[in-house]
């Protein structure tokens, strides 16, 4: 149980990452991924990387610069422009549904204008899911200058699109529906220089 804990990625640039294990029985037609990050990086970095053998950027949350997030599904991406961080925690949720190809992006409990992405696509189920690195191959192929350095917390993955009130609940750390990956029951393995510590403040 990682309640009130964080992963601290200590080095910059880094070869460290965290492997997450989710029991996925079938391809995803819908999903929502949420996480909280805290960093002073201004270079590009990867937050959440979900790769299959066919597609290394099956799901990817990537921040190429301080005022932009990229959300990938099946190798294609949409860009969400955001205010530059003020040196505080940032909570992001990204959701996608195959039937409409609608991509939603929420930052700190607030929705951004929806965009279209990969309508009719299915996200493969046999996946390598990593925090802190971008995969250019299945479970590897990292560029240290796209690595994350800082603190990560509250990571979740659902096989549904969350409703607006649940998106806000994720931001406020309230009760959430059962998830494929849940911070309070996370199955993970640390690779390299990552330390689990208590959160410094709520």
Automatic annotation (TrEMBL):
Cystine bridges: 34-93
Source species: Rhadina sibilatrix
GO molecular function, one term: complement component C1q complex binding
Protein's recorded name: Pentraxin family member
Pfam annotation, one family: Pentaxin
GO cellular component: extracellular space
Domain Pentraxin (PTX) as annotated: residue spans: 3-202
Chief location: secreted
Keywords: Acute phase, Calcium, Disulfide bond, Metal-binding, Secreted, Signal
Family the entry assigns: Belongs to the pentraxin family.
Needed co-factor(s): Ca(2+)
Bound cofactor: record note: Binds 2 calcium ions per subunit.
Location in the cell: Secreted
Entry keyword Transcription: no
Oligomeric and partner information: Homopentamer. Pentaxin (or pentraxin) have a discoid arrangement of 5 non-covalently bound subunits.
Alphabetical list of InterPro entries matching this protein: ConA-like_dom_sf, Pentaxin_CS, Pentraxin_domain, PTX_dom
Protein's UniProt keywords contain Translocase: no
GO biological process: acute-phase response; innate immune response
